[in-house]
Amino acid sequence: MTKKKQENQKNNISKIGQIIKNHRIQLSLEKASRAFFIDDRVDKGLLDPEWISEKTLSNIENGYNMPSLSTLKLLSVALEVDFLELIKEIEDFILDNESE
Known about the structure:
Largest sheet: none
Distance between the termini: 18 Å
Radius of gyration: 14 Å
Number of strands: 0
Mean pLDDT: 91
Strand content: under 5%
Low-confidence stretches: none
Shape: elongated
Order of helices and strands: HHHHH
Helix content: 55-70%
Number of helices: 5
């Protein structure tokens, strides 16, 4: 993989994390912490208690880990965002980034 492609991939992962974090913050929950977000989503019955760890969410939001499709699906439920809209938002960014 060329250095430019590696850089683009790293930027894409970081942007995906930022998109997810932005959606989480837009929920305007009582507290902005990841732990509160996870607990709130479980308390509301949206997801199973073991759906994601705070560390995993942190790594995704900070661009250290690329979420799998199944994790993105769970995140879309937790974020109360249509899964296809979330994928489209990510896709639009990646396509825009690759054309530069």
